[in-house]
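Two proteins, back to back. First:
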Amino acid sequence: MHILFLSHYFPPEVNAPASRTYEHCVRWAQAGHDVTVLTCQPNCPDGIIYPGYKNSFRRQVEFVDGVRIVRVWTYLAANTGTVRRISNYLSYMLSAILASIRLPRPDVVVATSPQFFCGWAGVWVARLKRVPLVLEIRDIWPESIRITGAIKNGLVLRLLEYMEQWMYQGAHHIVAVGNGYRANITEKVDMSDRISVITNGVDVRKFVSHEPDPQLRRSWGMANKFVCAYIGTIGMAHGLQVVVKAAEILRRKGRTDIGFLLVGDGSLRGRLADEVKQAGLDEMVVFAGRKPREQIPAILGSSDACLIHLKSCQLFTTVIPSKIFEALAMGRPIIMGVKGESRRIVMEAGAGLEMEPDSPDSLALAVETLADNATLRSQLGRAARGFVAQHYDRNVLANKYLDLLECIADGGEAIKLTQPAAGQDMRSPDRKAA
């Protein structure tokens, strides 16, 4: 089978869409399939091309772990500024459609969102190639940008919402990364029999719990602190102002033995760093910057707890951040600042403590509780590792996804997979006509 996968992001970029696409495509290639990824030159989040790459109108081809990577030109833009970012997204859509003309006809096209126009590129490429489209939904867009305030023009938002529905209806099948996403989509379009749920997961062979690295902790200036790490995008949706305010609360209580490590980059990193400096919290809140993917296990393993947080809103109750599974695999207790399906997973695993999103007092209490109770940390960590290995192994999930693609490419019945709550049987999916 020849699979053509459209993704705006791909390694060496280290965000969640890039990682999920890579992890699945490599496994499909290892299973003997011909996998092509149509993507951009790596430049996220700064809009600056990574060393060794060139943003050329001539497409560039490379092979990564058995996967053919075709990189196309895009208008470059940092992960800030709505107009420039949308220009970046639109340029990828156009470049991907044009580049696909010269590519061999695949058996199935997969397009992943975010970003939104990558999904639309998949619609047009699948029509040009006259093959089925599987649309992967990792973000409910434009609803998410309405909530974060990135676009406020009502007319533009309504137009994008119409385009969202057309995009869904243009797919032969939709793969959502959570049951909440599936419910959101079915409220907008009548296609519940053509939506499957395949969550994110983790390679439990790469993410293995280990003792903290003293040298790494010293490099953060946190050799003798309890370290609560946040790893991921520092953007409008993530509400990380709560960390700065929680650090102020802890300082007033004399808890300078606790520190927050923020690993990653995004549109609000500069503003948060300024707030930390002005408040004199440099020794309690440390920005480590963007790190290569291969360093993440070591960073997690050298932390004492992990923070998962999004702003408080109804839409984000449907989100399952992929970083949850990596923290679970590393046996690190989670401070869970996201309600809904994500919280259910962590609480069912017995792997963390709840906090109220956007509440500095709640965060400060949770991190103090873990810092003061080594027995509780150990208990939560052991439960985390066992749970994720049983229910969210990347190999198992990639194989389920591949079964779905094979059924669709063969023109037969598609397997509708709705991932159940942990502990329920996933081996008997319903079958629905694609």
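And the second protein:
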Amino acid sequence: MQEGTKLFLQDVSDGQPLASEFTLDSVALHVTSAPTGSISADPNPLITDWRGHGGTTLSWTSYGTSSVEVHVNAPNGTRFASTSAGSYSQPTGVWARPGMTFYLQNTSNGLPLSSANTLATVTMISGTITLNPNPIHVSGGSGLGVTTVNWNSFGTSAVQVRVGSPAGAPFAFWGPGAGSETTGMWVQNGETFYLQDVSDGKPLTSANTLAVMTAVVLPSP
């Protein structure tokens, strides 16, 4: 159907012709598009300070709306921004945290701040990886040691730990949250472990590296 298409209700009793004098009612159709929107953050993964806080710039676009708002952690959470339709961007302060989600809400004509009116979301991605022990003290001449790799991720659905490079030898496969796995006696000095975000099939590239940790292997005193 096109904008302005008219529908006619016709009386065809007793074979009456399709003429205007036998039109009982009519209506003109108005075509409107459903509101749509998108929101993104840059940088994401989030680069955090010693407190686990970081700053990012949010960018959003909406169509078919008259007003939108960006809220933090829930459709009716703390309001971050309020704009009309179109494209906008605004930096946060250094208060964004891993796992924090920003909601783009359609507030046209006083629509309530509910999930039914959420146009798009973006979650701040981040992760950490540590080795225990590190340094690793070894005896004998092999120069190889054992350690436990611990990691945690936020805003992800799947991660991998890779050795040597973002696409290096696979060491561990995990979902969101915290994980831990112990190596065999093959860790050498300078061995590097990469925590990779592979959510939704993301490639094993440096752009999707959440954290890196390098092993230090020393001879026992």
